[in-house]
């Protein structure tokens, strides 16, 4: 990749940017001199975000704009991108950061059809349709832009509670691995970020439905501040790093599941792989044992919830 | 896992079993003495499959039945399972083999919205809804059954042409990793199979839309006969192996992307990891170069297809 990429003077398009990681990413892009288009659904949160963006601008020439669209549909994603490009003479953004997404942990046998479909929409569709619209526009205009996807530590491994969420974060990894390869045809760069849990409004929301056993397994995790995560994300994008991770545990898991994804420093990869070789299997065996021990408590919980009183094929 | 599992006298439920891997799996289960319920959409293919199943039965007590349902909806999956269980007094199957699925390779910028949605339905939904229905039934009836998911080599890595397909095969890996963990709560076993390309009707179908560069990258691959793949799948399930692969290349890729998934023999894993450490990165660099070299030919192809004449935001 040679020379470092810089957001200064560029047009950056950020989804899910009214709060959490998306907002922090947008703010840092503004502080580094980018024009930033922020897309999300909630008008009130967007207005509040715009106020923050404005106080962080470093030049009067930066264009800071908010757009309210539903990005879970292909049409919404296309319209949002088109609207944001109008201010720039219809030119594709230099970089799109696809940060939209929310986690809804739930027991598999207690999930509803909408839990699964909702995670497809909020995680996979928001990233797929926007990256699709952006790739087509960049390819048509021969813009050598960047597409940045946001997966999760749970796109690298998974465990009890994440049957609706983790598959979609895995799907984003599959999408990024494909796009990294395919968009070489157009000189479009692809990046994927694997953040761990972050102290965000979304994190508070997900803890409301999170199964007790899942919380227990996560109790020694250290969630990250979203502005710290955003800084790591941006540093990775500037350096041309395909696969970006911020915390130690995620780096260990990632090293054990790299497959053909490009990796930066091979010596660093090797060290994390050795740690992972012993650590990850030991971690899983510990978690497996916790789950097995929890089985009778879980059985009592399901009894109390009336799970066994329903017809055998009940949803 | 100790004692080996045997399909003899068990009720096995196989989806996507009117042809290809599903049919071969069903036939081997019949030859080993299982009662087999076969589910697919196409009535004529199901009738032909039943004739084959009947000629392979080893005992008059085996129940061999076909069911035509649309498994891409939660309701269809639930109804199909319920119908198949009726013959067994409503009892959950001992094992469900979720083989439904089809690949539709296509260039990202040429894909239609339905290409993406179709792959969600044929790959992710067919496995999700059936595993969901089966897990709930097994949990309610305290049946310590087995749920077998079928991913692909392209659930372990991906490249140009598979932007609609690979993400869903990755999603199945995320689902299986979660269910392996979560269904420990109920004593339900989970397996995932990663077959390479197979000489099946589906393989002939996918080659019709496969981009030229994708075919070129795959030209030295050796597709497998589906009955050989089915034998490896069944052997893995009998041995209680969580992650099952049949061919050398898939085993190499898998060793580099194992994460917290349980693995069998660690010495074997180590050997494949060492091969993968050098081989996979070299493979990717070679593929990346092929794609870059193909860029100008691809540009001419898109020109000829009128891609650049459309409005910039055209679908």
UniProtKB/TrEMBL annotation, chains A, B:
Location, primary (coarse class): endoplasmic reticulum
Gene Ontology cellular-component terms listed: endoplasmic reticulum membrane
Physiological role: Catalyzes the reduction of 3'-oxosphinganine (3-ketodihydrosphingosine/KDS) to sphinganine (dihydrosphingosine/DHS), the second step of de novo sphingolipid biosynthesis.
EC numbers for this chain: 1.1.1.102
Endoplasmic reticulum is among the record's keywords: yes
Cited Pfam families: adh_short
Catalysed conversion reaction: sphinganine + NADP(+) = 3-oxosphinganine + NADPH + H(+)
GO biological process terms held by the UniProt record: 3-keto-sphinganine metabolic process; sphingolipid biosynthetic process
Subcellular location: Endoplasmic reticulum
Name the UniProt record assigns to this protein: 3-dehydrosphinganine reductase
Transmembrane segments annotated in the record for this chain: 147-165, 185-203
Entries under InterPro entries matching the protein: KDSR-like, NAD(P)-bd_dom_sf, SDR_fam
Record pathway: Lipid metabolism; sphingolipid metabolism; Sphingolipid metabolism
Domain of life: Eukaryota
Keyword Membrane among record annotations: yes
Origin species: Calocera cornea HHB12733
Keywords in alphabetical order: Endoplasmic reticulum, Lipid metabolism, Membrane, NADP, Oxidoreductase, Sphingolipid metabolism, Transmembrane, Transmembrane helix
GO molecular-function terms, A-Z: 3-dehydrosphinganine reductase activity
EC supergroup of this enzyme: oxidoreductase
